TrEMBL record:
It comes from Paenimyroides marinum. This is Tyrosine recombinase XerC. PANTHER family: PHAGE INTEGRASE-RELATED (PTHR30349), TYROSINE RECOMBINASE XERC (PTHR30349:SF81). Residues 1-82 form the Core-binding (CB) domain. Site-specific tyrosine recombinase, which acts by catalyzing the cutting and rejoining of the recombining DNA molecules. The XerC-XerD complex is essential to convert dimers of the bacterial chromosome into monomers to permit their segregation at cell division. It also contributes to the segregational stability of plasmids. Forms a cyclic heterotetrameric complex composed of two molecules of XerC and two molecules of XerD. InterPro entries: CB (IPR044068), DNA_brk_join_enz (IPR011010), Integrase-like_cat_sf (IPR013762), Integrase_catalytic (IPR002104), Integrase_recombinase_N (IPR010998), Integrase_SAM-like_N (IPR004107), Recomb_XerD (IPR011932), Tyrosine_recombinase_XerC/XerD (IPR023009). Residues 103-287 form the Tyr recombinase domain. The active site is at 143, 167, 239, 242, 265, 274 (o-(3'-phospho-dna)-tyrosine intermediate). It comes from the Bacteria. GO terms for biological process: cell division; chromosome segregation; DNA transposition. The gene is xerC. Belongs to the 'phage' integrase family. XerC subfamily. Belongs to the 'phage' integrase family. XerD subfamily. NCBIfam families: PRK00283.1, recomb_XerD. Keywords: Cell cycle, Cell division, Chromosome partition, Cytoplasm, DNA integration, DNA recombination, DNA-binding.
Length: 295
């Protein structure tokens, strides 16, 4: 059975181009499902009832979104086994995804982003870097994984673009603001050029103090620390800057298709959440300012 899981892993990575984090999640979920079935059961002989039992079991401690991810991974696995002529029917086929409550993303105002940057300590060497990181994420709407993997060879400042390696190793070119270019160049000149850089990180743009690539966790820590110093009582993460980028573009007249391309969303329906966010803001404005609202 482990051989099929290994083949499935290669299939997702090489043929489907699935992102590394997604692949690891699918394999983790498969392992948990194997444990749930027990040593005397096989993944190949699974029935729909087994899948339903597992989802009921994990629903005690996992949110609907995580349950949906598990079903997606299992669906891919059994579809793969059908392709390999190992089984004839997919036991996940008729199982409905759990209903999810769509939460509107947390967004910062332009003033709040300015406040976030205003508390950066520029007397420390990482201050200039952190300022450039925030400017780049907000200017380009990057995912945290896209930011930490951004390379010097991805910068096309003369043309006003950066090349981004997104989900599924898909490349896209995103416009970058002149303010972000200025701060990146300042970081490269004042900080990065004077560092002892690890050989494997020579082309990586943003580095830690030891000259190695930054981790996702470090970006989270930077933002959480700055948010606390700034007195911002919102649940801020790297994705907050990405949401703010998209929301502010929409509020200022950008069309949804352009935002989709810049964010690297495969489907326009993913981008449409920002329409709901915009409508929510309009509703709040009416409730706050309309003279008849308090009648």
């Amino acid at each position: 059975m482990d051989n099929y899981i290994e083949q499935f892993s290669y299939y997702l990575k090489l043929e489907r181009g699935v992102a590394e984090n997604t692949l690891l999640s699918y394999l983790y979920d498969l392992d948990k499902f194997k444990q749930f079935l027990g040593t005397n059961s096989s993944l190949i002989n699974v029935q729909e009832a087994d899948i339903r039992g597992f989802i009921h079991f994990v629903s005690e401690y996992l949110a609907p979104a995580s349950q949906a991810r598990i079903l997606s991974g299992l669906n891919h696995f059994y579809s793969f086994l059908i392709l390999q002529n190992v089984i004839e029917n997919n036991p996940v086929m008729f199982i409905e995804l759990p209903k999810q409550i769509k939460k509107l993303p947390v967004v910062l105002s332009v003033e709040e982003i300015d406040t976030l940057q205003s508390v950066i300590d520029f007397t420390k060497t990482e201050g200039i870097r952190n300022d450039a990181i925030i400017e780049t994420m907000y200017s380009c709407g990057l995912r945290v994984s896209e930011l930490i993997n951004l390379k010097l060879s991805d910068l096309f400042f003369d043309e006003g673009f950066i090349r981004v390696l997104g989900k599924g190793s898909k490349q896209r070119f995103v416009p970058i603001a002149s303010s972000a270019i200025k701060k990146i160049n300042c970081y490269r000149t004042e900080i990065r050029s004077k560092m002892n850089i690890k050989k494997e990180a020579e082309d990586i743009l943003f580095l830690n103090r030891r000259g190695a690539q930054l981790t996702r966790a470090m970006i989270f820590t930077i933002l959480k620390t700055l948010a606390k110093l700034a007195g911002l009582h919102k649940n801020i993460s790297p994705h907050t800057l990405r949401h703010s980028f998209a929301t502010h573009l929409l509020e200022n007249g950008a069309d949804l298709r352009s935002i989709q391309l810049m964010l690297g969303h495969e489907s326009i329906t993913t981008t449409e959440i920002y329409l709901h966010l915009d409508k929510q803001k309009l509703k709040q404005e009416v409730e706050k300012y309309h003279p008849w609202n308090n009648r």
